[in-house]
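Objective 1b. Sequence-to-structure analysis of DUF5063 domain-containing protein.
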Amino acid sequence: MFDEWSALADRIAAHAQNYLDGLTRLAGGEGGDAMLPMLLVEVSQVSLAGAQLGAAQDVILQGNFEPATGPDPDLDGVRTALATRLGPVDDYAEVFDPYKDTVVTPYRLSDDLAAVAADLIHGLGHYRAGRPLEALWWWQYSYFNTWGNHAGAAMRALQALVAHTRLDVVEETTTA
């Protein structure tokens, strides 16, 4: 069983690092006019990792104890840079839990993207310390508790934005 967990931890760690690298590059100004579709790709790919965690059996830590990973990095610079780049499309509305809470809640893409990053970084701390089971436990727990919701909400908002840029075409007027 350890080999299966280890292989899953390796896959999730790779997805997490790819997401963090992509998010950092996009927050730093890369992507130009393709920023929104590129963010959609990043969120979609890390959501695949979340789906794998959701499909896996529950990861249970022996003694129900999570060792400390040390302080998590401050992501406020990335969040702020994303908010600046997203500008007026940063704010959107979302239903937090369509089965329990049907109230529309204001969200920010920059907050969602940074929240996903924070949870992934925490798990990477365990993974890099040679604790793949603890990393999986954290990623799975936080996927169900926080980052899965933020990634899903961000993906819906980003898909809507990309769709609007492609489908909301102004008709050309021709003069005769």
